[in-house]
TrEMBL record:
Molecular function as annotated in GO: potassium ion transmembrane transporter activity
Pfam families: TrkA_C, TrkA_N
Natural source organism: Brevibacterium linens
Superkingdom: Bacteria
Entry keyword Cell division: no
Assigned GO CC terms: plasma membrane
Domain RCK C-terminal, chain residue ranges per copy: 137-218
Keywords: Ion transport, NAD, Potassium, Potassium transport, Transport
The protein's name in its UniProt record: Trk system potassium uptake protein TrkA
Annotated ranges, domain RCK N-terminal: 1-117
Length: 228
C-alpha cells in the first residue's frame, strides 16, 4: 500500500514507522528542513514541500497514493490537504489529525475527510474504556461518520451473560467484530458464549447506537419487571 503522510513531526514519524514495519510504502512531506533532517526513518521517502500546494502534491505523486494522512499540527493545513487529495487527486482514503477538538465538526466529507482522529477524544475514550462497565464507549468513527467502533464491557448481571453470540439479535447495521477476554482478543463465532467481564467491540451506524446500548444493558431483572 502506498501511503503519503504530511507532517514529519512526532505523530507523522510514529505513523510512518508503524506502516514501514508492516512493509507499506511511505512518503513523508514537510516544509521544514529541520523536520526532515531529524530522525530520518530508514525505508521512508522524504519530500520538502508545502502540503497545501498543488505543485508539491503533484511532485509527491498523490494520484498514486492509496491513503493520505494529514498529520500536521495545523488543522487548516490538514483540512485543505484532505480536500485537495480527494478533489484534485482522487485519493481513495484520507485520514486527518484534529489538533483542536473545537474544530472536530469540520472534519467530514465536505472537506474530503474519511477518518478524523482527535488525540484528546481518543485518550478520553481509552480512559472511559478502562473504567466503565455497562456503558457504550465510542472509540473511533469510520466512513465519514457513517460507522463507529464501539466498546462495551459486560456487567455480571447483564442478560447477555451465558448467551450464545448466534442467539443474540443485534440491531441492524451492527456487527460484533471482536471480544477481549482475559487479555486475549478473538473474533467471535456463533457458538461462542458471552461471559461477565468480556469486552465487546462493535461496528455500528450512529442511529443504531441507542438500540444497541438498550440491548447490552438489559438485565434479567429488567425483563422480569417489564413482564410483570
Amino acid at each position: 500500500m502506498r501511503v503519503i503522510i504530511a507532517g514529519a513531526g512526532s505523530v507523522g514519524r510514529s505513523v510512518a514507522r508503524e506502516l514501514l514495519d508492516k512493509e507499506h510504502s511511505v512518503l513523508l512531506i514537510d516544509q521544514s528542513k529541520e523536520a526532515l533532517g531529524h530522525e530520518r526513518i530508514p525505508g521512508a521517502e522524504w519530500l520538502l514541500s508545502d502540503a497545501c500546494e498543488l505543485a508539491g502534491l503533484a511532485e509527491a505523486g498523490l494520484e498514486e497514493a492509496d491513503v493520505v494522512v494529514a498529520a500536521t499540527g495545523d488543522d487548516k493545513t490538514n483540512l485543505v490537504l484532505s480536500l485537495l487529495a480527494k478533489t484534485e487527486f482522487g485519493v481513495p482514503r484520507t485520514v486527518s489529525r484534529v489538533n483542536n477538538p473545537k474544530n472536530e465538526w469540520l472534519f467530514d466529507d465536505n472537506w474530503g475527510v474519511d477518518v478524523a482522529v482527535s488525540t484528546p477524544r481518543l485518550m478520553t475514550a481509552l480512559v472511559e474504556e478502562a473504567v466503565e462497565v455497562g456503558g457504550l464507549v465510542h472509540l473511533m468513527s469510520f466512513e465519514r461518520g457513517q460507522a463507529g467502533l464501539l466498546e462495551f464491557t459486560v456487567h455480571e448481571n447483564a442478560d447477555l451473560v451465558a448467551e450464545r453470540v448466534g442467539g443474540i439479535t443485534f440491531p441492524l447495521d451492527t456487527v460484533l467484530v471482536a471480544i477481549i477476554r482475559n487479555s486475549r482478543a478473538f473474533a467471535p463465532s456463533a457458538d461462542d458464549v458471552i461471559e461477565a467481564g468480556d469486552e465487546l467491540f462493535f461496528l455500528s451506524s450512529p442511529d443504531q447506537e441507542p438500540a444497541l446500548l438498550a440491548l447490552l444493558q438489559e438485565t434479567a431483572t429488567a425483563k422480569e419487571n417489564a413482564e410483570g
